[in-house]
Every structure is written in C-alpha cells, then in structure tokens.
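Collaborator request, handled under Task 6.
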Amino acid sequence: MLHVIDADGSGFMALPTARELAGYPAWSPDGAHIAYAGQSGSWGIYVANADGSNLIRLTTDSAQKDMPRWSPDGQELVFARVVSAFSSCSVSVAMAPVRSS
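Structure tokens returned to the collaborator:
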C-alpha cells in the first residue's frame, strides 16, 4: 500500500492501489500522476492520478517489473524488467497515457 503526506506533515492518506504489495513510487514531473510497481499475480507497472483515481496497469506479461521512472516531459515511463530471476535484467520503455486530472 502507498501513502502520501504533505511536506508539513499534514494530509496523510493511503492511496488506493491494485494490491497491498506496492512499491517504487514515482511522481510525474507535473505531480498529476503517480507510477508504481504492484503485485497482481506478477509484478507490474501501474499509473494513477495523484489521488489514486483512474488506476490502470501498463504491463500485462508475466515478467517482474519494478522501479518506474518518468521521462522529463512526463510522456513515457522507463522501468526494469527481469527476464529471468537471478540471471539478467533488461530495461523496457512503456508509453504512459496522458490523462486530464
């Protein structure tokens, strides 16, 4: 589960996530979206609005994926994709849909 809090310590809240297991959060450059790795059978990459609404899963294959990071313009995500556990790791790029908040 992911939580957010304002810089002054107020506004603590849990974001609705696809599953209880969620990590590697990354805010979009404009702060409107959050990307994270979550487990729903296999680890995948998810994107949601900053308040947790409009959650979508960007990846659907069974390979483990984590550590999403936004491009400077907020149009793409790069993330690690484990091809075979304990042997190699490749880097994949996915387009993140740009939505109005």
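The cover message to the collaborator said: "DSSP finds no helices and nine strands in the chain. The two ends are 22 Å apart (CA to CA). Please let us know whether this matches your experimental observations."
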